[in-house]
Automatic annotation (TrEMBL):
Protein name (database record): LytTR family transcriptional regulator
SUPFAM superfamilies: PYP-like sensor domain (PAS domain)
Domain PAS: 1-58
Single GO MF annotation: phosphorelay response regulator activity
Listed Pfam families: LytTR (PF04397), PAS_4 (PF08448)
PROSITE patterns in alphabetical order: HTH_LYTTR, PAS
Residue ranges of every copy of the HTH LytTR-type domain listed in the record: 123-228
Gene3D superfamilies, per the entry: LytTr DNA-binding domain, PAS domain
UniProt organism field: Skermanella stibiiresistens SB22
SMART domains named in the record: LytTR
Phylogenetic lineage: Bacteria, Pseudomonadati, Pseudomonadota, Alphaproteobacteria, Rhodospirillales
Amino acid sequence: MGLVVLDTSWRITACDALARHLLGRQPAPLLGRSILDLHPPQVRQRVEWLLESAAQGPASLLVSLPDRTILVRVVALEEGGGLAMALFDLGDADATDHPRAAVPASPTPGADPAPATAALAKVPITRHDGVFLLDPTKAVNFEAAGHYTTVVTAAGPLFCGLSLRKLEERLEDSRFIRVHRSYIVSLNHATTLVREDGRTALVMDAPDKPRVPVGRNHMERVRQRLGL
């Protein structure tokens, strides 16, 4: 576990060796920097929400960095204000998003091939009070938000700390399909395929009937899956 201490302005005042290792892949020293600066602009609002939530009690968030996924736990400090942030390394992030050199291992004669990555039984949704486990059948579509993902449901949008690429690898192929570089949809919730002004979209069964664009590179696969 790595530990980071923030002042009342959310600037880093102290961190241990593991935290420096996890967050040190930055172009400038960590001390004195705002913790928000370590995240892409499109997700800083969610990190800000995490820090504000800590005033009401311990708050958690899954953070996808370029080469790993980290569980962040934040609590408010009683003496002098500020926050304490615990970082738990959950391992390597999606290697297909951030390829690295690797030496292939020699297979053991007679050994079974390595098992494929298991399909997600639940989608982890980050909330102020912990991680809610969403039934994948409740997800209407997924939209990329930087290193994170917005999950659209009939009840409204939710925040998932996994990248869209990671979700694509783990969701069941029979139910979900990538239709755009920024979108995955549940075919169970798709109601209509429409074409307007030369653009194709899927109308989804959710409040306000959102339209998810279908990219040209994905059109043929979408047509095949829909029998068109």
